[in-house]
Amino acid sequence: MIKFFRKIRQNLLSENKFSKYLIYAIGEIILVVIGILIALQLNNLNEERKNREFEKEILAQIEENLNNDKLALKQIVNDFSLAITSSEKVLRSKVSDKTEDSIKVWLGNIIMFDRFQPLTNAYEVLKSKGLDKISNKKLRFLLGKYYDDEASHMVKSTNDIELTFNTHWLPILFDEMVEFEFKKSVELKDYKILLNPSKAQNILKLNRDNLASGINRLNIGLATIVKIQNLIEEEIK
Question: Does a structural domain hold residue 48?
Answer without folding.
Answer: no
